[in-house]
């Protein structure tokens, strides 16, 4: 990779643990019972490399959710304990996903030490991370755009940005421009056309993609949600969907170490996560 390393971080998407056996969706296996061991292996690597990691980023859906709140809470406590070596520090950053909200939002924010439902963080070498939560705040938009063949993204399992967060996002992009920063955006649902299936895009992805591509600061958008992963580029912005840990093949993990320089973002995938070298 070209250039001196500016910072390094750990990356994972859709851990989505639940205390249940293997499930099947669209012919793909969802290996719930294998998630704890896979996550333990990833945590060991992140903990070992902690001195050089700026943070560890989880792209949402830390659990799947079960039929009762007590069972769901039990799953959350179990997976949080596995994350302990990294989740107990300010280095662990989590993006809220649709399955995450089977646990009360306040508990998630408190126990995962999140700054809020969405937040911005300054990074070394004039980079900035913006966590843009896509959830039910865009209910007004959804009410005006029922699911159809033309808008398959309007499924209930997706989400969008409401007016309050949209204003905040514009402010963050303006601040980054003023400070001469480059930006990584993290959100659970993909907003870059072609980087995920149409049925797994954010509700108002069209306007969000336009906003991010129009910004001279945004270089990379990281998402989960579509478990198969994906990639697209629009203008100077790379849109990456990270493959789900939940659906990693048997005896295969799914996480990454990401190295950032002033010229390149190198996603070093482990197991089923695709490695990518992206010019920025």
Strand fraction equals 25-35%
Major sheet details: 6 strands, mixed
Structural class: alpha/beta
The fold-level CATH name is: Purple Acid Phosphatase, chain A, domain 2
Strand order of the largest sheet: 5-4-1-12-13-14
Helix content: 25-40%
Mean pLDDT: 92
Task: Spell out the CATH superfamily.
Answer: Metallo-dependent phosphatases
What is the number of strand segments? 14
Flag low-confidence runs. none
Q: What would CATH call the class?
A: Alpha Beta
Give me the CATH architecture, please: 4-Layer Sandwich
Separation of termini? 12 Å
Q: Order of SSEs, N→C? A: EEEHEHHEHEEHHEHEEEEEE
The structural domain count equals 1
Q: Tell me, what's the shape? A: globular
Radius of gyration: 18 Å
Secondary structure tally, helices: 7
Quick recap of the structure?
Helices cover 26% and strands 26% of the residues.
Note down, in words, how this protein is organized.
With about 280 residues, the protein is α/β, with parallel strands linked by helices. It has a single domain, classed as Metallo-dependent phosphatases (Purple Acid Phosphatase, chain A, domain 2). The protein has seven helices and 14 strands. It has a six-stranded mixed sheet. Strands 6-7-8-9-11-10 form a six-stranded mixed sheet, covered by helices on one side. The radius of gyration is 18 Å and the shape is globular.
């Amino acid at each position: 990779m070209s250039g001196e390393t500016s910072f390094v971080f750990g990356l994972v998407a859709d851990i989505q643990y639940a205390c249940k056996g293997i499930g099947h969706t669209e012919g793909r296996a969802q290996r719930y019972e294998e998630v704890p061991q896979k996550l333990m292996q990833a945590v060991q690597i992140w903990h070992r490399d902690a001195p050089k990691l700026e943070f560890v980023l989880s792209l949402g859906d830390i659990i799947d959710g079960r039929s009762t709140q007590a069972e769901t809470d039990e799953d959350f406590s179990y997976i949080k304990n596995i994350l302990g070596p990294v989740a107990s520090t300010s280095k662990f950053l989590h993006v809220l996903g649709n399955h995450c909200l089977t646990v009360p939002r306040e508990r998630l924010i408190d126990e995962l030490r999140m700054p809020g439902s969405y937040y911005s963080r300054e990074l070394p070498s004039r980079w900035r991370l913006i966590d843009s939560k896509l959830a039910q705040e865009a209910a007004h938009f959804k009410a005006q755009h029922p699911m159809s063949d033309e808008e398959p993204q309007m499924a209930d399992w997706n989400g969008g940005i409401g007016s309050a967060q949209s204003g905040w996002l514009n402010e963050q992009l303006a601040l980054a421009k003023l400070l001469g920063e480059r930006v990584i955006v993290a959100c659970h649902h993909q907003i870059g056309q072609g980087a995920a299936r149409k049925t797994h895009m954010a509700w108002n992805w069209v306007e969000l993609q336009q906003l991010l591509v129009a910004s001279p600061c945004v270089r990379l958008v990281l998402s989960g949600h579509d478990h198969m992963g994906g990639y697209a580029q629009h203008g100077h912005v790379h849109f990456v969907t990270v493959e789900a840990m939940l659906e990693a093949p048997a005896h295969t993990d799914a996480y990454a170490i990401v190295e950032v320089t002033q010229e390149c973002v190198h996603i070093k995938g482990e197991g089923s996560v695709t490695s990518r070298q992206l010019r920025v």
